[in-house]
């Protein structure tokens, strides 16, 4: 199987951003649970090949497992998400993330199947989808993809300098209404003073 083909940006052509074409492999496996005998999981991300076509298809099926191929996903790199790629590429195991959903009604098989929605290399994208209660799974990215991502990060990510926190003693004092408070060290004595 050929490796991942990473497209460089092309200002004059159809590839405006760096991208690669991938296919998603989903696995349905039997589990020991009388209420839910099957479980879906992300199995793999593979380089897309023209021979895959554009339609999902069943690759393998027996009494213990099914494998489905979902071809033709484009993974693009966006310069405004360079930090998301940086956070991915600097982990011990950089990865692809896939959002997938179950069909509401069976369209591809006799029963509803898991259908990938999108694929990304951005840590931020994955976090937003998880926050939105989506099903997000990951698989390790191969070395050639990690190297491509690292090169993109080196070109586009700028580490923000950590700002020194201003000491509390230098912060202006405010009253309960948010107005500057006045502090005086002068002693005020009442009428008829003491002493």
List keywords for this structure.
about 200 residues, alpha+beta, 5-stranded antiparallel β-sheet, 3-stranded antiparallel β-sheet, 3 helices, about 15% helix, about 30% strand
What can you tell me about this protein's structure?
The protein is an alpha+beta fold and 195 residues long. The protein contains 3 helices and 8 strands, in the order βββββαββαβα. The chain has helices spanning 82-89, 123-131, 143-156; strands at 6-7, 19-30, 38-47, 57-61, 65-76, 95-102, 114-120, 135-140. Helix 1 crosses helix 3 (143-156). The longest helix has 14 residues, at 143-156. The termini are far apart. The mean pLDDT is 84.
Q: What is the tally of beta strands?
A: 8
**What's the pLDDT, averaged over the residues?**
84
Over all CA atoms, what is the radius of gyration? 28 Å
Distance between the termini: 97 Å
State the shape: elongated
Number of continuous helical runs: 3
Helical fraction: 10-25%
> How do the SSEs run, as a string of H and E?
EEEEEHEEHEH
Largest sheet: 5 strands, antiparallel
Taking pLDDT < 50 over at least 5 consecutive residues as the criterion, the unreliable ranges are none
Name the beta content range. 25-35%
Alpha-beta content class: alpha+beta
């Amino acid at each position: 199987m050929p490796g991942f083909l990473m497209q460089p940006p092309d200002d004059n052509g159809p590839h405006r951003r760096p991208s690669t074409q991938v296919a998603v492999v989903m696995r349905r496996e039997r589990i020991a649970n009388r209420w839910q005998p099957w479980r879906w999981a992300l199995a793999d991300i593979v380089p897309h090949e023209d021979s895959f076509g554009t339609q999902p298809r069943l690759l393998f099926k027996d009494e213990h497992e099914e494998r489905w191929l979902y071809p033709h996903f484009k993974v693009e790199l966006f310069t405004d998400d360079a930090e998301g790629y940086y956070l991915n590429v600097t982990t011990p195991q950089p990865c692809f993330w896939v959002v997938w959903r179950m069909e509401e009604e069976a369209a591809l098989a006799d029963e509803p199947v898991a259908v990938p929605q999108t694929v990304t290399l951005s840590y931020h994208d994955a976090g937003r989808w998880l926050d939105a209660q989506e099903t997000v799974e990951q698989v390790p990215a191969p070395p050639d993809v990690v190297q491509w991502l690292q090169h993109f990060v080196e070109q586009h990510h700028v580490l923000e300098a950590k700002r020194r926190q201003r000491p509390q003693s230098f912060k202006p004092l405010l009253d309960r209404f948010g107005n500057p408070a006045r502090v005086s060290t002068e002693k005020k004595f009442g009428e008829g003073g003491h002493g």
